[in-house]
Amino acid sequence: MVEKGRPLWALGLMSGTSMDGVDAAMVLTDGETISELGETSFSAYTAEQTALLRSGLGHWPAPGQEGIASLVEQAHVAAARPFSEAEVVGFHGQTLNHDPEAQRSFQIGDGEVLAKALARPVVWDFRTADLKSGGEGAPLAPFFHFACARAIGASRVTAFLNLGGVGNVTWVDPGKAAPEEPGALLAFDTGPGNALINDFIAARTGQAFDANGDLAAQGQVDEAAVLRFLEHSYFDRIPPKSLDRNAFEAALGLVADHSTEDGLATLTAMTSASVAASLRHMPEPPARWLVCGGGRLNRTILSGLSGRLNAPVEPVETVGLDGDMLEAQAFAYLAVRVLRGLPTSAPSTTGARLPVSGGRISRA
User: Fold this and answer.
1) Which is nearest to 204 in space by CA: 140, 150, 152, 265?
2) 18 confidence band (pLDDT: 50, 70, 90)
3) Are 80 and 89 in contact (CB under 8 A)?
4) Bridge-partner residues for 107, per DSSP?
5) 3-state SS of the chain?
6) Contact 359, 124 (CB under 8 A)
7) Strand ranges of the sheet holding 166-172, from the earlier edge strand across to the other edge
8) At residue 220, does pLDDT exceed 90?
């Protein structure tokens, strides 16, 4: 364990549910406050690599996955090498499956391999300890969001909305002293982020995503389909709660007979509606919504959110943060917290029985 002292330069590595590449981001932190946000990079996967990763989705650890593991490890080592000044690395791995009810979550990739290759400490396996403590094992970025809210000088309740494959929200009261303090945070997955949109447009046109939400903007929303979507029992579940990327794939059947534009308009509205549904679980409505992840670039999603949420909705860039790198930065920050033995999750963020310091440390 590292005692509190000077801030460390930590490198966070993240390959998300979009499986498009590896984000790498440096953070100077003591595990509590953010001293500086450093350099970042993105290393794209090839189409063949993404296809290999997707072939592992929905599977649990089993023989025959060596190729996927090797790809993840080598890609992350390559992404980390330019950051020679990093004193510790936070490595999330690639999520292939997530089933919190069975206390299981599978992030493929061995931190021991990275520690040996990079010759520096690597913190990884962030979710297991939380799952064993009765938590969902996700989301894990909320403690970093708390630090971000303090860093930007937020004085009122702020929501950080991440729209990756799955949407998740962190409700932050920046007036609290620490993220594990009762009432400081509430975090949970809201529903689909970009996953349904991306899968639908890929099947229809071969495109990876609806750039800017332009095709969705040309379509008509099937409001009846959106209402049927909102009947899903997940929206009534009390948080904390989390989702697998494909948990809502049945919703694609609601737009199977629609035109490409109308289908995208409807699926995009489902994303916005699921975020609005999250308000019922919050202690008070956020005064501001800050959006990160790829979904912040979809103007049709943001327009839908503005129409459904009674508060400003803005990309995190408006407060000087990087919406593409927030998750990688979060795992840099969490790595230092693990080194110091500080909590990385709490009952209000994952449902764990007590604040938990997760993560395994592999030393060079």
Assistant:
1) 265
2) confident
3) yes
4) 95
5) CCCCCCCEEEEEEEECCCCCEEEEEEEEECCCCEEEEEEEEEEECCHHHHHHHHHCCCCCCCCCCHHHHHHHHHHHHHHHCCCCCCCEEEEEEEEEEEEHHHCEEEEECCHHHHHHHHCCCEEECCCHHHHHCCCCCCCCCHHHHHHHHHHCCCCCCEEEEEECCEEEEEEECCCCCCCCCCCCEEEEEEEECCHHHHHHHHHHHCCCCCHHHHHHHCCCCCHHHHHHHCCCHHHHCCCCCCCCCCCCHHHHHHHCCCCHHHHHHHHHHHHHHHHHHHHHHCCCCCCEEEEECHHHHCHHHHHHHHHHCCCCEEEHHHHCCCCCCHHHHHHHHHHHHHHHCCCCECHHHHCCCCCECCCEEECC
6) yes
7) 185-192, 166-172, 158-163, 288-292, 313-315
8) yes
The overall longest dimension of the chain from CA atoms, in Å, is 60
Contact 105, 345 (CB under 8 A): no
Distances 71 to 76, 93, 116, 215 between C-alpha atoms, Å: 8, 11, 16, 34
Residue 2: pLDDT band with limits 50, 70, 90: low
pLDDT of residue 3: 61
CA–CA distance, 327 with 14 (Å, rounded to integer): 7
- Preceding amide of 142 cis, omega within 30: no
> What is the pTM for the complete model shown?
0.91
247: left (phi over 0), alpha (psi -120 to 50) or beta: alpha
Closest CA to 76 of 39, 31, 36, 45: 45
Token pair recorded at residue 156: 């009122």
The pair of structure tokens assigned to 317 is: 């860039």
What φ, ψ does residue 8 adopt, rounded to 5°? -110, 145
13 with 76: CB under 8 angstroms? yes
Q: What is the mean pLDDT of residues 207-226?
A: 97
What per-residue confidence (pLDDT) applies to 24?
98
